[in-house]
Amino acid sequence: MKGSFWRIGAVSVLSAALINLGFVGAASAGIVSTEALVTSSRDADLASVRAQLNRDDVRAKLQELGVDAASVDARVASLSDSELRRLASEMENAPAGGDALAVIGAVFLVLLILEVVGVIDIFKRVS
Known about the structure:
Blueprint: H1 2-21, H2 34-53, H3 56-64, H4 69-77, H5 81-93, H6 100-117
Helix pairs in contact: 2-5
């Protein structure tokens, strides 16, 4: 009798779950204007570029090169949507301080060559 109680409970729970799967909630959708989509994308890109340009080190480098900050802001604002998108993606993907992985690889390669030639003994051999 004990096994049938658990069986009835399991069948009841699974039946309720299967019946509930049949009642799918309605999805609501609306029409979004192209202007709203383009404006939000442009605003996000503009905010991203301005955030990068407002960093202290970037401002200092621009001043060192003799570029006026107001001129930079005006030029960024006058970029087309595609130019702004490309600039924002390039600024996000640009490596900070150069490609460190390439430098590490080159140093390792030089050390490996010097080890093979016998000039240095960095990689100790265990006897």
